[in-house]
Amino acid sequence: MSGDSQFRTALGRARGLGSAHHGVSAFIVERSTSVALVPLCLWAVYAAIKVAPLGYESAVLMLRQPVNAIMSLLLVGVSFLHMRVGLRVVIEDYVHTPAGKIAALMANSALCWLGWAVATFSILWVAFVGGPVH
Amino acid sequence: MAEATSTGKGVRTRPTSPHLQVWRWHVTMAASILTRATGIALYGGAVIAAVWFAALMVGPDAYGPVMILLGSWVGKVVMFGLTFSVFYHLAAGLRHLVWDAGAGFNPHTANMTAVGAIAFALVATIVVWALAIQTGAVR
User: DSSP H helical segments within chain A, as ranges?
Assistant: First the structure.
């Protein structure tokens, strides 16, 4: 196949090769997480108002309640998943150089996984150990 | 523009759609831009949430300063913006889910839901902050 011909357009080269068969997963992840985030975000606003006036000890006690710990874990997990796919679309729209795009996509994934890991570990720590790290 | 019609590889670039400076400003466009802007703002909000959870784990020495920062006037402005972002992005998301189901595309409906989403976010933000001030969450 003369795929490297400089006279062929990108569309001409891609035509006939069929789809990659996995493009739809990002679409579904973005939609399903958005549905889950409706109740989770409303809870987050409610919980933020509840926890804001509390001191350290009371805030720890609040997060130690199973319902709050579970909702926090779901909120953090679903949010970072949604953010990762959401910002990916923004990067693909605006960053066009291959190196810049790959770097931005990797930074996006890294930040989302890091944020998820830090928040999840912190929630579990407070819930099971309850209080300062040392 | 020669630089817009060819790349270094001799492949013609595809035509691009007219951009911001040639479009008349209208509400559905504002709603679209606002969806993205609030999404990016909430990205920052999630990082703040992760820092808050980490501070709660580390202890009072970390939690105190984080709460002082969030309670400062800069922190309040950020939290107010994030409250608006949550409600707007939520409404815009529901609007997109309706579109994904194949409904709500006629111009009149699209304009109405755009105005509705912005209005809902403004009202919900003000109501939540009124409640927050009333319950002592914001001082």
Answer: 10-14, 24-51, 56-64, 66-94, 98-128
Going by C-alpha positions, the residue among A55, A54, A44, A52 that lies closest to residue B71 is A52
The domains of chain B are located at 33-134
| Nearest-by-CA chain A residue for B12 | A9
Asked if B83 is an interface residue toward chain A (Cβ–Cβ < 8 A), one would say yes
ipTM confidence score? 0.86
Distance from CA of A103 to the nearest CA of B (A): 18
Residue of A nearest to B54 (CA): A122
Please name the member of B36, B63, B136 whose beta carbon is closest to the beta carbon of A90. B36
**Amino acid identity at A117:** A
Q: What are the structural domains of chain A? A: 22-128 (1.20.1300.10)
**What share of chain B in percent tops pLDDT 70?**
89
> Was domain B33-134 assigned CATH 1.20.1300.10?
yes
On whether the pTM is more than 0.90, the answer is: no
